[in-house]
Amino acid sequence: MAGNNWNTNQPSPPGSGYTYVQGLGFVPYGPANKERAALVACANAVGLAVLLYLFLSSVTPSYLVGFMRLFMPHLRYFNSHLMAPEWVGQLIQALSFVICSVVAFGIYMALIRIPARVALPLRRAPGVIAAPAVFIGLAVSALGSFAANLLSMVFGWFGAIPVTPDISVSTTASGLVWALVNVCLLPAFLEECIYRGVLMQSLRRFGDGFALVISAVLFSLMHRNVLQAPIALLMGLVIGYFVLRTGSLWTGVLMHFCNNLLAVTQQVVTPMLEPEQGRMLGTILVLFYLVMGLVSILVLSRSGVNLFHLNQSPSALPVRQRAKLFFTCPAMVIALVLIIWLARGSVQFLPR
């Protein structure tokens, strides 16, 4: 894919030459054909990266345990559970996440030949937009929780119970540190680098709106959980939007980190309270997020920031056709089938 134009502010020059079409012979190879070929190649590369990430996620922890047994012979598995000190399990989780992310999406960057400075726009984020964006993100997360609860109720009508992964946070000093690393810091930085960085920036050639929606959908699907999907989708859209508006990945990292940090804090504090107090705390926080989100929108509106505008990139293909081409490429189809297969465990059916 040499010759890709990675300057997202400038349209690619029209294609030249001819290509053979069955029944028509040699016809001009125009912009539409060039964009279609580039999109198909990019989508297949994304699908391969997702498949590689899922494969590495399944085997890397075992290899890390095997390596650590050279220094800690007592490590072993019992009923698929690692018998080891807490810090060992947390360290393996952190290393596995880093290795899978860097290898899979590093190879994707090499396949499509996107420069690191384009894939990872780590310029300074403007505080006048980034600060209100944090509260807007928290409000959207609260709305996503409402959507997840509604979805859970709908599943219940059909005798199914969606479940979320059990992320227990130890209240020991080391447990809180590892929660900060594995739940807040690493996901905030690496997931933003992957979804709002490498993936979204590489798709901007096909339109900013297209790149925003596709990266948010992939972010949602890769959670592989029915209840987390609507929250991740909404958060992916709002975080990606503010990354595009500020031109900085740090905006997304800040929004992602604050959301995860407050969720972990609530998870640690709530068990210390009476059940009624815990419910009251949750209600107060939701109302606070919604109010502050609304205030932040008003502040940005009064500051002259056009909240509902994205740069329009010229495209020779309609949006529906671009989406169809992306999600029907062979590698993407295989990746989607595997994600759905893995997500089946997030729904349990009641016995009849």
From TrEMBL:
Alphabetical keyword list: Hydrolase, Membrane, Metalloprotease, Protease, Transmembrane, Transmembrane helix
GO BP annotations listed: CAAX-box protein maturation
The keyword Ion transport is annotated on this UniProt entry: no
Pfam family, one: Rce1-like
Ion transport as UniProt keyword: no
Domain CAAX prenyl protease 2/Lysostaphin resistance protein A-like: 175-262
Any GO molecular function: endopeptidase activity
InterPro entries: CAAX_protease, Rce1/LyrA-like_dom
TM segment ranges: 38-71, 91-112, 133-161, 167-190, 202-221, 227-244, 281-305, 325-343
Name of protein: CPBP family intramembrane metalloprotease
Gene source species: Ligaoa zhengdingensis
